[in-house]
Structure of Transmembrane protein:
Amino acid sequence: MKHPATGVRQRLAPRLLWIDSLAALGAGLLVFGFAPALSGLYGLPVPLLQRIAAANLLYGSGSLGLACWRGRPRGAVQLLALANAFWAGVCVLLALQQGAEASGFGLAHLLGEAVFVGTLGALEWRYRRVLAPQPDGHQATRASTASSSAAGQRISGTASSAGRAK
């Protein structure tokens, strides 16, 4: 009997890039749109919130492109997972740096984002073979091998047809 969580993981893993990109885009839009109000609530400067929002929007756009990309290279998924780990670290450093001025809400946002993004990065790394089944370049090699093989068959088929015609 399968473990009950196995089905959830199998359904969740292929959707990780969509979850990642939509969460980043949503967070970026909300933080950017409400930066002045959030600044008062979070005790964080507006320019810092705008930079965080811009990073989320840029990252979300890139991960959305990756989510839409069929036959995505595994290296791109690995890079995305590492970028998530990096951003989680940045959020922790910002929480440490801003800890004296930030409110509990501001610290909760920064540390919550670190946990969320770090977890996504870990899951993307764990399921990188699901998210990008073929290693980098393998699909291109496979396609070129198939076309070379088909071309070889056409040539040999033509040669044998010519031989039969004689």
Notes: The chain is about 85% helix and 0% strand.
